[in-house]
C-alpha cells in the first residue's frame, strides 16, 4: 500500500501548528495571569478640571502604583460623555482600556436610546470610585439665607427664580426637577454649556442659584456673596459643616452624583476582580480619604456585583424621574 509523501499538512507541519497553538494559549494565559504587563489607559468621558477628571487624577496614579504599571488618563469629552463611553465599548476586552464615567453614563442611556452602545450589554461595572452630593449654591441676588426661606419665596413667586446646571439631563438638572416635584415649587431650569459659565453669571447676579456638585461649589462658598445653603447627600459634608441636608426640609430628598470605572463587557472576571480590589485599597488610603473629604466626595467600597446592582437601581430611579418630569433632549 502506497503512502502519500509528507505535504504541507504532514507530521512536521502538524507539530509546528501544535507548537504555535500552545504558544498562543500560553501568551493568553500570561496576559491574564500576569495582568497588567503594560500601561493601562483610562478614558475620562469629560474635559479636564471637572469633578470626574479631578477625582480620576487623584486615584489613577495610585492605582498604577499598586498594579505596577502606569495608568494613562485620556480625556475624551463630547456629546455629554458618550464619545468616551463609545470608544471604550469598542475597545479590546483585555483590561488595558477602561472607562471612568459619572452619573451621565446612566442618564445618557435613558435620554438617548439611539446610542451606539448598550450600558447593560457592552460594559462590565468594575468599581464605584466616589459619590458626590449635589448642593444648592445661591448667588448675591437672592436674599434667602436658608432652604426653608428659599422655598417659601419660590412658593409665593412661582417661576421667578432661575436655577442653572451644566445641561439638560445632567444630574444637577434632575436634582432641580426632583426638588420642584417634592417641595411643590416651580424654579426655572437654565442649562449652561459648562460650570465656569454658570458660575460667572451666578457671581454677577444674572442667575439666582445653581445646582452643582459639592466638589465644584466648595471653593465658591463665601465668595462674592455666593453661599451653599443645603446639600442633597445622605451624610454631612465635612468641608461644609454648617450646611444641612435638603432632606431635613424635604423628607426623602436625595441628589448625588457618582463616579465609577467600567470595562468592556467581555473583560475576564479575574481582571475585573483585581482592579476592584486595588481600587478599593487606594480609596481606603488615608491621603485619598483626606483629599476626597476636602472635595465633598466619599470613596466607594462596593464589589463589582454590588456596583452592578447599584447601576441597575440607578437606571430604574432615574428613568422614573425623567418620565415624571418629562425631560427630553
* Element-level helix/strand string: HEHEHEHEHEHEHEHEEHHEH
DSSP summary, beta strand count: 10
Shape: globular
Strand content: 15-25%
What assembly state would you assign to the polypeptide chains in this entry? single chain
Which class of the largest domain in CATH terms?
Answer: Alpha Beta
InterPro entries: BUG (IPR005064), Bug_dom1 (IPR042100), TAT_signal (IPR006311)
Family: Belongs to the UPF0065 (bug) family.
Protein name: Tripartite tricarboxylate transporter substrate-binding protein
Organism: Roseomonas acroporae
Keywords:
329 residues; alpha/beta; D-Maltodextrin-Binding Protein, domain 2; 11 helices; 42% helix; globular
Structural description of this entry:
This is Tripartite tricarboxylate transporter substrate-binding protein. Belongs to the UPF0065 (bug) family. Pfam families: TctC. This protein has 329 residues and is α/β, with parallel strands linked by helices. It has 11 helices and 10 strands. Strands 1, 2, 3, 4, 5, 6, 7, 8, 9 and 10 form a 10-stranded mixed β-sheet that branches. α6 links the parallel β5 and β6. It is globular, with a radius of gyration of 24 Å. The N terminus is likely disordered.
Task: Spell out the blueprint of helices and strands.
Elements: H1 11-33, E1 40-44, H2 51-67, E2 71-75, H3 82-89, E3 97-102, H4 104-111, E4 123-138, H5 147-156, E5 162-165, H6 171-183, E6 188-191, H7 195-204, E7 209-213, H8 214-217, E8 227-231, E9 256-264, H9 269-283, H10 286-294, E10 298-299, H11 304-325
Parallel strand pairs: 1-2, 1-3, 5-6, 5-7
Antiparallel strand pairs: 3-9, 4-7, 4-8, 4-9, 4-10
Helix pairs in contact: 2-9, 4-11, 6-11
